[in-house]
Amino acid sequence: MRAFITVIGRDTVGVIARISTVCSELNINIQDVTQSILQEMFCMIMLVDLSKCTVSHEELRSRFAQAGAELGMQVNVTRQEVFDAMHKI
Amino acid sequence: MSMINSRDILETIEMLTAENLDVRTVTMGISLLDCIDSDPAKACEKIYNKIVSKASALVPTVNAISEEYGIPIVNKRISVTPIAMLLGAAPQADPVEYAKTLDAAAHKVGVNFIGGFGALVHKGFSPGDERLIRSLPRALAETELVCSSINVGSTKSGLNMDAIRLMGQIVRQTAEATQDNMCMGDAKLVVFCNAPEDNPFMAGAFHGPGEPDCEIHVGVSGPGAVRAALAELPKDAPMDEVAELVKRTAFKITRLGQLVANLASERLGVPAGIIDLSLAPTPAVGDSVANILEEMGLESCGCCGTTACLALLNDAVKKGGVMASNHVGGLSGAFIPVSEDDGMIKAATCGSLTIEKLEAMTAVCSVGIDMVVIPGDTSAEVISALIADEAAIGMVNSKTTAVRVIPAIGHQAGDVLDFGGLLGRAPIMPISTYKSDVFVHRGGRIPAPMQALKN
């Protein structure tokens, strides 16, 4: 049950720390992280495993949305199957 | 990263967040053929129980998929067997009671529309058909979530001009019955030629007699994502490149729909029916089919070139979508509902888009004169004649066409009706006031064209 957490917005201090903290609190294992600056926007993509997550999907979404609001960035959690469907034949 | 590159990941996120990509509808088709009863009260009880038992898990299951996967899924809906088929067995029944039963069941399971309060009369009326049609003004005024579609013609059987004449009157009466509510009844009433039996989109969804007992259909969307992809293309790129880009985007959009269909079918224990490869606009800014055509190089939708651009768009959406899905069905094509499309609303308001141009556009896309508001003093005969024109296009071109017009009772060309929500708002568009009365009053049938003789 893998998902990508994407964080997009103006670069600021502590983005990875803030998102990783939420992951740790919810028992979400981080498997890979990449980040880049695209068109002056900071983009971080984190591949995570949700299989041992301790809360419901609803709660999980609201926790990351809250972290996103605090950082002033857009945080999305999307299951890997979505990207597989759209980008693999 | 995990075989998917960052650019693809960000593209998908951008499509889902900024470009309004969503799965427009998950529609459960339910057969009511086993609810036929000569006692109307018993029939209604069976209908209610069957819908509630089949669809009770629909909304929570689809919402859970949306939450879990991060895919917006806008509508959850139900389509049922055309109710006229059940009315034939109950000659004393009041069809409105059946409509109220559908409405109550839809409210109970939490869907936002239920389709199938309709009749298939392309060759003639069977017992129940005409009673249902005549009950429509009251049925649509006294229910909230019930949608109706009447099939008045087909390539195989020609056009039932008696039904077309009647539907002109019914459309007017429905507008009058719902005059205090923006003439909303007509937003829930579609008159079809070649109606598909597995269409998941409202207001025209119904569950045809050839369908299984229960199945799940998915309608995809994403005009915003197609427009955004085209915006990246240089303005001097040839049309082949435009078509290729639409195809690629449609493929991705449709794969998302197929994923949702697979998940919903598995979790609900209901077979997956079809994916409807459609570009369904919403009134949200940018989520517009008109904007896609304008992105191809038109100043305003409706100008010369619109039909050609729409033909390319419609074809490329199908070509991209067909490889991305297991079973294709429904309407499958670009929709051009005026009030539900921000770009169409602007084009109709500034005058570049007229009813006559819309009629031409319907020859190359799905579906027809859709969500068009016409002056309140338009006669029933003019509406019938408009239906006949549209149905003729569908009949001759072996495609679905439809009319969903709203005569704005008490209003004139230039005024605006605001339906709110997905139904949007629309300026009243002028329509020819020259009379077609003698033609419409002839009744009878327009014979099936040569195209019908394929055997």
Q: Ranges of chain B with pLDDT <50 over ≥5 residues?
A: none
Overall tally of structural domains of chain B: 2
Tell me the span between the first and last alpha carbons of chain A: 20 Å
Oligomer: heterodimer
Count of strand segments of chain A: 4
Helical proportion of chain B, percent range: 40-55%
CATH architectural label of the largest domain in chain B: Alpha-Beta Barrel
Distance between the termini of chain B: 54 Å
The number of strands of chain B is: 14
Model regions low in confidence, pLDDT < 50 over at least 5 residues of chain A: none
What structural class do helix, strand and pairing data of chain B support?
Answer: alpha/beta
**Biggest β-sheet strands, sense, barrel of chain A:** 4 strands, antiparallel
CATH class of the largest domain in chain B equals: Alpha Beta
Using only C-alpha atoms, the radius of gyration of chain B works out to 21 Å
Can you walk through the features of this model?
The relative contact order of chain A is 0.29. With 89 residues, chain A is an alpha+beta fold. Chain A contains three helices and four strands; from the N terminus they run βαββαβα. The two termini of chain A are 20 Å apart. Helices cover 38% and strands 37% of the residues of chain A. Chain A has a single domain (2-87), classed as 2-Layer Sandwich (Alpha-Beta Plaits), CATH 3.30.70.260. Chain A has helices at 15-25, 57-71, 80-87, and strands spanning 2-9, 29-38, 41-49, 74-79. Chain B contains 15 helices and 14 strands. The termini of chain B are far apart. In chain B, β10 (369-375), α14 and β11 form a beta-alpha-beta unit. In chain B, strands 1, 2, 3, 4, 5, 6, 7, 8, 9, 10, 11 and 14 form a twelve-stranded mixed β-sheet that branches. In chain B, strands 12-13 form a two-stranded antiparallel ribbon. In chain B, α6 (129-142) packs parallel to α7 (161-177) and α9 (239-268) packs across α11. Chain A binds chain B through residues 2-4, 6, 8, 31-32, 34, 36, 38, 43, 45, 47, 57-58, 61, 74, 76-88, and chain B through 1-4, 6, 8-10, 12-13, 16-17, 64, 67-71, 252, 255-256, 258-259.
